[in-house]
What we know:
The complex is a heterotrimer of chains A (587), B (316) and C (308). Chain A contains 22 helices and 20 strands.
Amino acid sequence: MSDEHKHGLGKIKDKVATALGKSPPPLLEIRDLVVEFEVQGKPVPAVRGANLTVYPGQTVAIVGESGSGKSTTAAAVMGLLQGTGRVASGQIVFDGQDLSKASEKDFQKIRGSGIGLVPQDPNTNLNPLWRVGFQIRETLKANNAEEGDAKKRAIALLAEAGMKDPDKRVNQYPHEFSGGMKQRALIAIGLACRPKLLIADEPTSALDVTVQRQILDHLDTLTTDLGTAVLLITHDLGLAAERASHLVVMYKGRVVESGPALEILQDPQHEYTKRLVAAAPSLSARRAETPSVAAAVTDVKEAAVEAETVRDELRDAASTGPAEVVVASNLVKDFPIRGSLPFQSSDFRAVDDVSFTMLRGTTTAVVGESGSGKSTVARMVLGLLEPTSGTVEFDGKDVTTIRGPEAKEFRRRVQPVFQNPYGSLDPMYSIYRAITEPLVVHGIGDKASRVDRAKELLEMVALPVDTMHRYPNELSGGQRQRVAIARALALNPEVIVLDEAVSALDVLVQAQILTLLEGLQNELGLTYLFITHDLAVVKQIAHQTLVMAGGKVMEQGPTDRVYDNPTSDYTRKLIDAIPGGSIELAG
Amino acid sequence: MPDNHTYPGQERFVAAADDVVVGAIDAVDQDAEPTGFWKTAWLQLKVRPLFWVCVALLALILLIVLFPSVFAFGKDPHYATLERSMLPVSGEHWFGTDMQGHDIYARTIYGARASVIVGVLTTAAVVVIGGLLGATAGFFGGWLDSLIARLSDVFFGVPLMLAAVVVMQMVTSRTVYSVVLVLAIFSWPQIARIARSAAISIRNEEYIDASKSLGASKVRTLFTHVIPNCLGPVIVVATVALGVFIVTEATLSYLGIGLPESSISWGMDIASGQPRLREGSPILFFPAGALALTVLTFMMLGDVLSDALDPKARKR
Amino acid sequence: MARYLLSRLGQLVIVFFGATLLIYALVFLVPADPIAALGGDRKLPPEIVEGLRAQYHLDQPFLVQYWYYIKGVFSLDFGTSFSGQPVWDVMKRAFPVTVNLALIALAVETILGIFFGVLAGLKKGKLFDTSILFVSLIIIAVPIFVLGFVAQFVFGIKLEWFPVTVGGNLDFYHLLLPGIVLGLVSFAYVVRLTRSQVSQNLTADYVRTATAKGLPRSRVVLVHVLRNSLIPVVTFLGADIGALMGGALVTEGIFNIPGVGGTIYQAIIRGEAATVVSFVTVLIVIYLICNVVVDLLYAALDPRIRYA
Lengths: 587, 316, 308
């Protein structure tokens, strides 16, 4: 009897059982699970008493921020805890078998055929040295699921996962695939042996939002057809609500709330869940704050009020001057690409005729997926990259061609905040040195005045003053971004360019930083250029929006108009692709 | 697909408020002590017993190099009379005497000087030259990188031992400094290679872009940001290289083309001790043992440091 | 791929000329009178001095001299040694011996090095791993002339398992002990490199995915960890061949092997600069060729380079 056949019968059995008023036995039951890691000789719990149930054919989502224990729970189910992790107590019952005390051999039997995995990062989860087809056939062989020609089966599996030209692709290497294609290959591998349960660990968070939607839709259809249960791990509440019938919210290793997905979204009960729902950009497409987020974030606002003198200085610097702060006209950037022979190169047009005007005290957002050219535009505005043609006018002067001391002066007025909180600060520099480096480079003030300035800047971003003695490795991602913002403010700039500045942060921290930025803009009259791939975030903070794809501007105009009445098909596609965007919330 | 039926075990559950305390978002832990890169490395190192063993040995070696007369108990390593020739190990001569009548224990103690000084000076030269050139090549890229890379390939292409042999033969007056020079000239590419790859991975980091956006010149960024971050991997390779330089100097002395006869070197003592092994006298093991111990100390130190200073292991 | 090869070949040419120029300069420029260096300590009669001047074009500018030398290299004319033999003949005798020696060393370091390295990497932190690390450190720390001498003494003289010296017997059995000694230090490096690669790759994401597929551990290690770990090791081994041949100097001395190292050493003592420079030039060429072979191997093993 083939696996599909078995699943099909199983589904009929479940339906009959339900009709008779009896529920089918749960496929996976996690009871009071405690998982510990050893840190410097002492056990540290990562999961403290988690409870979870998954029924056959059902999709259950675990939602949480980083450090919530969601990925660790999933890893424990498959016996894939890395390093010193171990199950300290509790039970993991899968299909009648308790896995909490299972041996490696027991796990090996279950992996692949009983439980499948679709891991998170498509770029590191495929062995770069073996062909994709080989890696698929491997799993078939290991689980004795080879029926007939394994090669043909691999092609069929790839086609099933939505890969185009599967017969060509099956013989290629992972680096020849795009991110979305690699993820499809991983899905093919995960489902190859028709497991009863598929664990999908953030399966699309590394992908563009339109690709995300395609892949998740596909996965939905597949698992429904096959009757596979899915345990979906994600940080995105909207995505979880869209795809799962049952939701489990985790915080600091514990389950804080669980139940039917829509119920939780429309009526969150626990404090933490309320915060998540309020802060999720896709769900709260409003620019006003809701009370619960504001409450959690008042400490930020209060601290900002205290730094009086600095605020005045900054406000004067930022708000005096012409209304049109930055005017970008017909920007074009070409990059040469090396051909296979020397002297053979063609041009790749990363930015194609982009123009916009930034008004003082407002936020201009540039939205696009990867490869759209948005970061290149930001770098040209910052003066880090010279345009192939076109101009960037700042205060009436074309800054793309200035050099020397004029350029240095320009730099004072336009400052960046970059994406990666773990790379934007020099690990060797204390926070004090990092924040005051701009002052040192421009020869401003002496040691004493710089210390004062550092204190004031830290207060503006709601960080305690003694943080300046610390080093980046002691701070979290959100804290580092706040330091980066403080550094950007050090020279009294007029414009701040934020290149995906909040994309790498957890949802609640993201909301906190956005509120901080908004507050600073209102107090000081700063002008922002906000680069992001997240259309939902844009609705919250930007006055005008540009939508880019393939180097060209697809649409631009006031944010509300772009969002509510998009003229371009591409924009419409982007809006539709927002996970959870279609869910109706109460109030 | 969403299903309206609620199964057992999946009813609505809300954790009690005091069960799970929801903290302030993203607050800084003010009780923890501030630690930077070096301090964190130090904390990791000081709990490893191997680290302290190396430090103790290193201290001993340095003391011997600086105050050999104390450790040799006043014995003169240059003094030799044929009456004392080829004496075995005894209370008077702990390691016996050699063919000319030198006290081998004294020679072993004084021999540390040459080896360690050559090792330290060569390493210092190589780290400075190789580190600077490598970091510059990696950071600036382009034609500068190609130039420095070709240059280092050229020196790499000549086997160290051979080059040293050729040059030492040609040099008229051989001193410690000529040995250091020869070794340094042909070994800097090794360090340059490490510094270059470190610089290449650093130049893509966003804090370098941030530095540029501040208005800092590229040269300033090189010295204030790139080079300090290259130090970690360079230090690790440098400690191992130190050991290798000491061995190389000993080999050159063994071949008779290292340090001049007038200075004391373990290599020379080992060479003169070899024929005596055949006669059953183990005196060659004393300078050999001292040499091995010294080199081992530096190499173990390198191993221990590499764990603490490895940048990959330190990213959160 | 074609671009990669072409640029590598271009680099090769530059390095060849650079390195040979360097050696030539070192030998001929450093001493005040090249003829004196050529003659060693002996005072040469005037006719010989004249002949040498003509032969080495010493009345011409340095670069012209170098040019003549390079031309000679390409026509395999390396000049004559003091004993009257063409250097080319001397090379024909010496090189094959050293090549055999180097091959034995290479076999030892490859097979044993990878074997122990993999085991140590798999059992990281345990006793086996720590002892392997320690042994490898000792091998590197103790100079080769001590190791070789002691090996010769223990295995040759005392235990009589191997012949003590080689001399004219160039068969495999005679070269075995010296080959092992020569390969010891490289063996230590290979063990350490393999070990660190294996232990690093064990925690790679794709290894986790492979385990999640239900593959038995042995297959995960063999198919996924090993192949990925060996690439840097192979590159090291390839580059090591050139180093082995150049570094056989001491080993050949201890075991009295008439190979490249021994010949160079004798030539240096006698002050025969021409012989020295010629041999070193050939060694450089071998080293460069090995580098290119290693690069090709790298491309063959890593599809990312092949299909870039």
